[in-house]
Design goal:
By secondary structure, the protein is an alpha/beta fold. The chain contains 5 helices and 7 strands. Strands 1, 2, 3, 4, 5, 6 and 7 form a 7-stranded mixed beta sheet that branches. Helix 2 (about 75-85) packs across helix 5.
Length: about 220
């Protein structure tokens, strides 16, 4: 027989869950300032984005695609959601007094992202067993547990007149707990938002560091 304490705990947990309570991933992002590189003042930058990930699909996941321009890579639904708008994301973190343009430019920034999972560089991983255990405890009224996983490599290369000025490669590998509520009707959308937030954090911080390092080579 369950003790009164256990029954009370179950009922309380179920009540809290039914109320829509959820614990979403808390992704804290630093305040980033645009890097000032006097050598690049009033200059133009062309951002090229290359990408690779395993072939998406139920029966795939290990066959890696070639590194290609982003528009030529086969994306999963999750990776397409995260990668959407990366052009604007990179443009937001351009150095001060520069302009991002297509085609010929004073500088070329080549960004290569390699995701290790077919779901993309950052994705929500459903923690099935943990969710099942919690639902058993709450008589089926618990939400779902996810882990927002970052698992990718990114390389930045800055060129001027076909000469490589600076290069940096970083590996992103971290995770955040993300719990959805039982009656959270937009839980999948919120998982996607958390994944995008983690991706934007990594891109913003890494490209800022990259430009800060490039500045020392261009002064």
């Amino acid at each position: 027989m369950f003790s009164k304490k256990i029954i009370s705990t179950i009922l309380l947990t179920a009540a809290v869950t039914l109320s829509g309570c959820a614990s979403h991933a808390k992704i804290e992002r630093k305040t980033l300032n645009s890097v000032s590189i006097p050598a690049m003042y009033e200059k133009t930058i062309n951002n090229e984005i290359f990408y690779s990930q395993p072939v998406p699909g139920v029966f795939n996941g290990k066959e890696m695609q070639d590194v290609q321009p982003l528009e030529d890579v086969q994306l999963s639904v999750a990776s397409a959601e995260v990668m959407d708008g990366i052009d604007n994301l990179l443009a937001r973190h351009k150095p001060l007094n520069t302009t991002v343009t297509d085609g010929n430019a004073d500088y070329l920034l080549r960004v290569t992202i390699i995701a290790n999972d077919k779901k993309g560089p950052v994705y929500g991983d459903h923690e099935f067993m943990k969710s099942v255990a919690k639902n058993m405890l709450t008589l089926g009224f618990a939400g779902s547990d996810y882990e927002i996983v970052s698992d990718f490599k990114i390389t930045y290369e800055l060129y001027q007149d076909n000469q490589l000025l600076h290069q940096k490669t970083l590996k992103m590998n971290d995770s955040y707990d993300h719990d959805s509520g039982f009656i959270e009707f937009n839980k999948f959308e919120n998982v996607d938002k958390a994944s995008r937030a983690a991706f934007e954090k990594h891109i913003g911080e890494s490209i800022t560091t990259f430009y800060q390092e490039a500045k020392s080579k261009m002064s």
